[in-house]
Amino acid sequence: MTAIDDPVLRAVTANDLLWNGAPGSKDLRTTRGQAILQAIEAGRTHQEIADHLHVRPSDLAWMTEDLESSYQPR
């Protein structure tokens, strides 16, 4: 998953794998959340990210809530 440079695409890929029942759901949720935070930090809008994930912008909050205090950008 780390081979995907674009954080929005990485979040979408992790989200798709989650919804398709791939193993490692905890790791996929972490990857999705970190990618969302990276995208926001890179200047992508909440609306743009949400559109790609097919969710509401307000959904991004719960997708990242466990990570925001411990997230360290690379």
In short:
With 74 residues, the protein is mainly alpha-helical.
Output mean pLDDT: 91
Number of helices: 4
Poorly predicted regions: none
Structural domain tally:
1
Written as H for each helix and E for each strand, in order along the chain, the element string is HHHH
- Name the quaternary structure: single chain
Broad shape: globular
Structural class: mainly alpha
Work out the number of β strands.
0
As a percent range, the share of strand residues is: under 5%
How helical, in percent, are the residues?
55-70%
Radius of gyration: 11 Å
Main sheet, how many strands, which sense, barrel? none
Written overview of the protein:
The structure is a single chain. The chain is mainly alpha-helical. It has one domain (7-64). It has helices spanning 7-19, 25-41, 46-53, 59-64. The chain is globular and about 30 Å long. The mean pLDDT is 91.
Any chance you could write out the topology, listing elements then pairs?
Layout: H1 7-19, H2 25-41, H3 46-53, H4 59-64
Looking at this protein, list some descriptive labels.
74 residues; mainly alpha; 4 helices
